[in-house]
Each structure stands twice: as structure tokens, then as C-alpha cells.
Fold:
Amino acid sequence: METDKATFETGGAFLRDTRAEVERHLSDRDVRLRASLQLYLKAPIAVGLIVSSWAVLLFTRLDGVVVALCLGGLLAGATLVAFCVQHDANHGSYFKSRRHNHLVGWTADALLGFSSYAWRVKHNVAHHTYTNVDGYDDDIEKTPYARFSPIQPTRPWYRFQHIYVWPLYSLMGLRWQTLGDINSIRVGSIGKSALRFPSGWTLAGLVGGKVFYATWAIVLPLLVFPWWKVATVYLGLSMVGSVIMAITFQLAPCVEEASFASPADLVSDRRAWAVHEVETTVDFCPHNKLLTWALGGLNYQIEHHLFPRLPHTLYPTIAPIVERNCLRHGVRYTVQPTLRAALGSHFRHLRFLGRAGLRAEIEMG
Ligand SMILES: [Zn+2]
Structure:
């Protein structure tokens, strides 16, 4: 029977046992305090990198090495804001207060140029609630450009998607900053999740964020440098940053090892939400501390999807608990040992889905 409504079974022994053990672990005040301090320390580093690199570029006499360092600083700072500041804050894991979290989450608007309001619906609701559910999770919805889920229809040009998807990823930032945000608000939904037209402080934050971002990233540099230099640097940084961000977010749910589902599958399988979240994501390079620091724990996606409101600095400490409970309850827990293995799996997933369904002679060609 076909159904359009995606619903999960709630609760279940796996989630209950895992939660209880994680709560026992977090009852140690030192564990929570250490994780919070590690989280808070990242914000000044991320914002400081952007502000200092930007100021040096605009207000000092430059030589080649300094320019390269500053461009690297802008890219690193923006990546850290995306992964380690706005992502946590917009999930509500920075502070207890929703308002304070939204304020820190506004770093997405002010420093990255995309709406934190739209992000919370796209990421927290559409992606986190309905991970890899066709029609609901906007992260796998790339029709007619690409096919990320086996449930989606095939098109002849998808056979090249494992090649052309990388330049497509590079346009993600520009799209969010402009048409993506505006379109989502105009349509009033992302996936099948409602996005109400913003009002009050939310609207002020959205408009103010766009103006603030455009002022420091485009208008003020145009007062100092010729337009073609500003355009080259802006596009270059945006494209590289977008590829880093898209790949990081895709390496967990959009790989060979992950499950995909239609809304009807959830009903017929009576799938529990927590089990679905673990089996639609994978961890990668969990023992690489530098990568874990830089990616804001996004290489611990299983833990992140089960506990999105915990600071990401806690994920390495709760991973053994989650893994142990997966084993006990027969839930598939997948870890890619290296970044290369995770990238390879994403590449093969795209190639396989692009070729599947094509006529044999095309497939062989
Ligand atoms: Zn998230």
C-alpha cells in the first residue's frame, strides 16, 4: 500500500538503553564541563580567524605570502563556523536558552550568508527527523540533477553524476545565500517540512544577516580592490568551502553502507526512529582527533543523529556506549576507518545509482 505520510515507531529498547547509559555517563559533571569548555573555545578561534584575515586583507599592505595566509584563514574560519559553531547552536546544544542558541546560530547568517532560520528547518527537521527518506530529506533531493537514493527515478544523464556532482557541490553555498533561502521561504516548505514566513526578530535576523554579510564580504572589499579581484576571491572561497561542506555532510548518509527508505517502507517495516537513524548514517575516521576537532564531530554522525542536542565535543566519549548498545540490540553500526574509504564509498554509491536502471548496452558502454 502506498502512503505519503512518513511516520516512525517511537521509543524502543535500543533507544531506551542507550539513552540511559549516556545519561549515566553525563551525570559526571567534569565530563560535561570539559566538553562545554572545548565547544566554547572554538567560537572565538573560528570568528577570530575570519575577522583577523579579513582585516589584514583590507587594511594592510599585502605581499603574496600574507594574501595566501589570509585566504586560508578566511576559509578555515568559515569552515569552523559552519561545522563547530552554527551547527551546534542551531541544534540547541550551545546553551540551555533557545534564544541564546539562535543568537549564536545567527553566525550562519552573518558570517556564512545563509539563513539560520531556513537551516533549522532544512537540517534539524527535514534531514535529522527523516534521514534518507525520499521526498522528506532535502539533503538527498537533487532531482533532476542527481540521484542520491535508489528509490528516486533514473535519468540517462545520471550515469555521469559521480563526475559532475563535485562541481555541483561547489555551487551549494551560492545557491543557499541567494535563491535557495528565498525560494524555500516563498514556497513555505523544505522537503515536506513547513517553513513559515518569518516575522519579528526572525525576519529582522534574516534580512539583517544578509545585509551584514553582503557588506563585509562584498561591498567593503569593493571599496579597496577592483571588482574582478573581489569576484575571483569570493567565488573561489565560496566554491572550495561549499565542496568541503557538502562532502562532509554527505559522507555519513550518502554512501553504500547507508539505508534508504520511502515513506511507505517506514510504515510497512514499523521502523523505530532511533534504529533508522543509526542505519542511515556511518561514522568515519573516529580516531583522527584533528579531523574530529575540525569537522565539529561530524565524522561521528551516528552519535550526532541519536543525540543532536549534545555538544559535538561529547561524541567521542559516548561513541563506545552507542556501539555497545547497537551490538546488544542487533542494530547495524558502521564505521569507515579512513577518509579515503568514506570518499570512495560516496563515489561508488553515486556511480552505482547513476548507472542502475540504464539499458544494458548503455550500462556496458
Ligand atoms: Zn546536524
Q: What stands out?
A: The radius of gyration is 21 Å. The CA atoms of residues 217 and 309 lie 31 Å apart. Residues 13-364 form one domain. Residues 87, 91, 123, 128, 304, 308 surround zinc ion (CB under 6 Å).
